[in-house]
Amino acid sequence: MSDFKLSIIDIINNDILSVKQRIEYIIESNSDFKLNIQLILIDLGSSDGSYEIAQEFKEKYPENIVLLQNNEKYEGMGHYYNLAFEHIRGEWVHFFDNEGELPFNAFLNAKRYMKKYHDEVDIVSFPVKYYRGKFKAFIPKIEYSNEDIIDLTKDYNHSTIHLGASFIKYDAIENRFSEELVDCEKTLFLTEILLKKDKYALVNNVFLETLPQYKYDQDFYTKDYVNNKFELFFNHLIVKTNGNISNYLQYIFANELTQIIRIADLNSIYDTKDEIEGFWNQLYAILDKLEFEYLEVHEEMPRIVRSFLVYLKNDDFHVELQPEKSKVFVKSDDYLINSLHFHKIRIDIVEIIGDTLNLSGSLSSNCDYRNLSVKIIKEFPNSKKEEFIAKYVEYPTTNRAKQTFLGITWEFPYNFDFKIPLKKDEKSTLNLRLVYHENGNELEMDNHIMFREFAGLSIYGNYLIKNDRIFYFRGRTFYVEPYSYKTMIKLEFKSLFRILKAHGPFLGKAIFYRLLHLVLYPFWRNRKIWLFIDRDTFADDNAEHLFKYCIKQDDGIEKYFILNKDSPDFERLSKDYKIVPFGSFKHRIKYLFSEKIMISQVTRGILNPFTHENSYNYEGLNTYKFCFLQHGVTKDDISWWIKKFHKNLYLFVTVSDLERDSMVNGHYNYEEFRIPVLGFPRYDNLSNDPKNEILFMPTWRRDLDTPEEIINSDFLKNINSFLNNEKLNKAANEMGYTLVFRPHPELWKFLDYFNLEHVKLSEGPYQEMFKTASVMITDYSSVAFDFAYLKKPVIYYQDGNYHYGEGYYDYETMGFGKVIFDEDELVDKVIEYMKNDCVMEEEYKRRVDSFFKFTDRNNCKRVYEWLLEH
């Protein structure tokens, strides 16, 4: 006889910011907690106080809470769940999902179903909604049945239930979790229980919201992982069912094959041809057990994966052409993989620069890029035609890289760039065509066109005006005409009608600003407006220094610096300049009429005051040139981030030929003229007046974006250890030095977790910091370039864990100081500098001279003249 109605198992692993709330949620959402609930807490050796919090609850509820601690090396979730089985005293068992969220009524609803269907089922489960990242952008799963009981022999597509959403009858559990499986141990555990009755109860009015179960990292795939999955999951279940693979088990098999086929290269995990042959034999043995029906309709499996499995099973891939209908079908036997003529072509960039139309876009298909091309047919009123073939472009470091499964390239992104010359007073139509090539023959398709966010046009703002031309899109055709206000009015009212019809968010604002733009356009169209912005919350970067130079130039250009009114820099700059508050009415109007925007960041939310207000509504109105002044020297490969198809920078300022060449020859895909070596404007105003300060400026880590992540990180522990190093603080006091800590802007939100007892926190302008510091310690931050520019000593204190891809810059051979990985060695080096008046060694001075192209005070002048000329 069970002592409790329900046993809940929860894993604790350095969760100090959430463990208290989690335990309280379990207690408070079960009104019968003391009477009917057992809570088994398993701590994995937490060092942040999580275990002590759990202990407090254990002392308060000694009869209900079991607290276990396991300090051994991490063994996988299955291992820890198995530890709980020795202590379970509940009739039903629930494995709490500490990454998910359940509503307050979840347990109450589950217990009703447990009681109502006690004799019919062994599992009661909730539907699941998956989301990615901080924002709950839900990944659609499947349409759940309205039935309380899911009969898997009929509703086989409801078979992949989630452990954290399930309540399991303890008596139905025969086997423990497999400790050799690392990603499907939970699925195996649940499947073996489902096989007993082929059904479960589904609580329809409650959802578990959680992260996706799988993360596709190629380092995750090993020989043991694959072999264990074949033997302990697939083959185990085949033997258990005597080879009678039911329809819902086929569905589960197909879902788990999704993980296997995402291995990009079998040679990366297997050592011999015989091992690879063994892999294929195992895979095909499982595929032979699957019927097409359960592959073709698998709603949870991405279509690209589904089609690849069908291709493997059929061992066939071919293309069928219907020239008379301009249709191209990609098939595997009778299974339709793609209808190429139905593919949407998505436009990334629409802009007119001088007398050239730049048009970029992409599509993805299973057809090799060598069989495709994209062309534009331009037709004039006199029926004369011109054809332009797009340049094919690759972005291998982005999400548009080729998709390779098991060494077979299965999805080919096709990125294209057009440069179409435009004649003066030209009137023409431009039709975009996707072309399939095979054996010397061509078949043209008239595909549907869509616009990505920030493309320059949208379905609402379908026209733009630039250089006395109107360029607009209607149906599936682009049009070029000479500018006329009458035409603009017609196009604008059609845009307003579409916005009204869509009835989207921020509708009123969009109509107001579009109408105001329409009214002002005849009077403002020839005004030259330049906007300057560093961050919306901070100044003191390249934009501020360039602005101060440009504002002195008498050139007829209106210049405005944009900054949030709450910024500490707002009052400082407002004393001498007219600063436009970020997001204000004035900012929005100036933005819509701006010719160029000079900015030291590339974040859209900083650039565009309408970003979070349905920016599609304003596309076409904003025809500015996006001029990136940079925040720091680019030393790493950041082509995954600042790629042309997303940022479309008009100017990318660099300081060194090495920096520029890494971009020109990399995968950014910007035209060469857009990446000049001009020098950073802020370097013009760097000055040197050291005040015996040791400046510590670590950069941030992209993977530490939540309090839980930062508080348990070695990154935070190492920083706090250094800032409070007894030997360093003693030496600094004796020699009259101050340790100054300046967090990266992304670290300010975590400031409470840093131990700043022995340091001075710097909040002032960067220029002043660099001026007064005697030596700088950083890890990977580009601020080292500013400091080295002054030929003051730099030390790199690194942990080998950096979030950017390796670039051209090598710290050991090109860096401006010693690279150190050990805290004691770092302290000794700082003390050495303090004893020698913080003088940079000659070797590093030579590196400074060889890296920077310009060391004069004319960077602002060069950037300004480039902007005037271009």
From TrEMBL:
Residues 21-175 form the Glycosyltransferase 2-like domain. One of its GO terms (cellular component) is membrane. It comes from the Archaea. InterPro entries: Glycerophosphate_synth, Glyco_trans_2-like, Nucleotide-diphossugar_trans, TagF_C, Teichoic_Acid_Biosynth. GO terms for molecular function: CDP-glycerol glycerophosphotransferase activity. Gene3D superfamilies: 3.40.50.12580, Spore Coat Polysaccharide Biosynthesis Protein SpsA, Chain A (3.90.550.10). This is Glycosyltransferase. It comes from Methanobrevibacter thaueri.
